[in-house]
Design goal:
Chain lengths: 93, 480
């Protein structure tokens, strides 16, 4: 069972602001999801290798060659605030 | 009072010397204008797809091999989630449970004995951006963010808690730095941030098997700072235990100005990284062939080179250790010995004059103006008796500062040693005539007066007289 406290913790980690009503909803939904996962855990997976990725691909690598950079005006186009070519953000302690 | 011992483990981040970032083809070049070396991938814009730089994997494997690690046959990247403005995606791509290399070690010298320090793991990850504060961090009204460093490839090298003192930790870090530098995968310049070090420290009464509660130290930007921070923190913990207190497990920052470690109790403490495999990156399968190919490119490493210096050049272990502590210094030494085949003399000059001048001026070996062949020429001039040992040191300083040839300096400044007996004899007679008291002292049995008289002759010839001849001629005249 995922309580309101845990919902609030997870919401904080994801920087989500939730109303009291939403917290109730997510508490129920997250509990259901975990319940389902608990059911899956009952399966015997002794002979199943852990899945690191769902695609049957490996070693997708590129050569170490420099490409195009994004022009600074585009880089900063969505910045809420800037100073020269820097992003400007609230003070971080 | 119980005897305590420290238990130290280090986490070292090393920037890899690639042309491009770990997951995109933006340049890693240092010193670009802010936010000029970025692209949609390293900025974490929606819909982009990271692709691993092959060179990063090769370099990480190379470092792992040099540190005697087992290379993983299957490795993957994971997301480490946290919010901080230097991290545009709100997660860092790192490696969690399947790092590229594990179970290695390196060897350090402790009181003349070899001690093996275990390496838990080496993993690949991306660097974060740089925050620029106006004034100090506590008074700044806002922060500025430069994402050029975001996505620069790092390897994190985690040691076992095998070190028992600040000295051992320094020896470990020096050896680690040397090994990584030898492999060529990183510059490992601490002052430029291409090598960064955090430390886990605890103390326990000698004889106790369990570890004490540890703290994590951050923000040590030099070897000196690391040593001071560890020494301070070990004493702080012992004091708390002696007073019957308990150590709080926490992250502490080294305050260089105050010379203390301070608690960093902040939201940062409440880390809950929620690692999970990065769905944008597919796993890596590393074949034995690939590992062997990389193994073949490993150069001679510091320990091997040291052994060879002892064997081939007949150097004392101490000399060999100092000279092989960096690849460039060892190269400099060997190139000089190739031209002037007296290994011990070359060693004395490299360890003595060269390192002394480098330390005094804060000069790195790759910035030194003297070429190895020029040092060989200087030593030849000295061996032939063209200049005295004392003058050679003066010439060396000039060479160090200007990069000029020793022959040119000797000519330009008229420093050629005077070995003309007639000329020296004349000065000797003048000095004897001018210092009757010292002459009497000497003749009266005070043999140390000779040193003074030799000094006077050297002074009169501006240090150019052949000291052997001066001694000989003075004694002949005085003993007459």
């Amino acid at each position: 069972m995922i309580g309101i406290k845990e919902v609030e913790h997870v919401a904080l980690l994801a920087r989500l602001e939730l109303t009291g009503e939403e917290k109730e909803v997510y508490s129920r939904q997250l509990s259901d999801i975990l319940e389902h996962a608990r059911k899956l855990q009952q399966l015997d997976t002794k002979d199943v290798p852990p899945t690191a990725h769902v695609l049957p691909l490996q070693n997708v690598l590129r050569e170490d060659r420099v490409g195009e950079h994004l022009p600074p005006e585009k880089v900063l186009a969505n910045a809420p605030d800037r100073q020269d070519d820097f992003f400007k953000v609230p003070r971080i302690i | 009072m119980a005897q305590y011992e420290a238990v130290i483990g280090l986490e070292v981040h090393v920037e890899l010397k690639t042309n491009t970032k770990i997951f995109c083809n933006s340049s890693t070049e240092f010193g670009a204008d802010p936010n000029h070396h970025v692209c949609p991938v390293c900025l974490g814009l929606p819909g982009v797809l990271p692709v691993v730089n092959k060179k990063v994997v090769e370099y990480a494997i190379k470092a792992g091999l040099a540190l005697n690690c087992r290379i993983a046959s299957f490795s993957k990247f994971d997301r480490k989630n946290y919010y901080y403005p230097d991290l545009p995606k709100n997660y860092q791509i790192s490696q969690y449970d399947l790092p590229i290399a594990e179970h290695g070690y390196l060897e350090i010298n402790v009181d003349g004995n070899v001690k093996r320090i275990g390496i838990t793991r080496v993993h690949m990850e991306e660097d974060a951006g740089k925050l620029v504060h106006q004034g100090t961090i506590s008074t700044t009204p806002y922060s500025l963010v430069d994402y050029n460093r975001t996505g620069v490839p790092l390897i994190e090298i985690v040691s076992e808690p095998d070190m028992r003192s600040a000295d051992e930790a320094i020896a470990y870090l020096e050896k680690l730095k040397a090994i990584i530098q030898y492999t060529g995968v990183s510059d490992c310049k601490m002052q430029e941030g291409s090598l960064r070090c955090d430390a886990n420290v605890s103390v326990r009464p000698v004889g106790q098997a369990e570890f004490g509660t540890k703290t994590e130290l951050k923000n040590m930007n030099s070897f000196k700072a690391l040593h001071k921070a560890l020494t301070y923190e070990i004493e702080r913990q012992i004091e708390i235990l002696e007073e019957g207190g308990q150590i709080t497990q926490e992250t502490r920052t080294w305050d260089e100005a105050k010379g203390v470690t301070l608690s960093l109790r902040s939201k940062e403490e409440a880390h809950d990284y929620r690692y999970f495999p990065d769905p944008d990156l597919v796993p890596m399968v590393i074949s034995e062939e690939w590992v062997n190919e990389i193994k073949a490119t490993l150069p001679e490493l510091p320990d091997q080179r040291k052994a060879r210096f002892i064997n081939d050049y007949g150097l004392p272990a101490y000399d060999a250790g100092v000279l092989t502590s960096s690849r460039e210094l060892a190269d400099f030494y060997e190139q000089c010995v190739n031209k002037f085949n007296n290994p011990k003399t070359v060693s004395n000059w490299v360890m003595g004059e060269l390192l002394r001048m480098m330390n005094a001026g804060g000069v790195e070996i790759d910035e030194v103006k003297i070429k190895p062949a020029q040092l060989a020429q200087l030593l030849e001039l000295m061996e032939k008796g063209t200049i005295s040992g004392k003058i050679a040191k003066t010439v060396f300083e000039e060479m160090f500062n200007t990069g000029k040839d020793p022959n040119a300096i000797v000519k330009e400044k008229g420093l050629v040693q005077i070995s003309d007996e007639g000329l020296i004899e004349k000065v000797v007679e003048e000095v004897i005539a001018a210092n009757p008291k010292s002459v009497d002292d000497y003749r009266g049995g005070k043999k140390q007066a000779l040193g003074f008289l030799v000094g006077q002759v050297m002074k009169a010839t501006k240090g150019k007289a052949n000291p052997g001849l001066v001694n000989k001629l003075l004694q002949e005249k005085l003993d007459k």
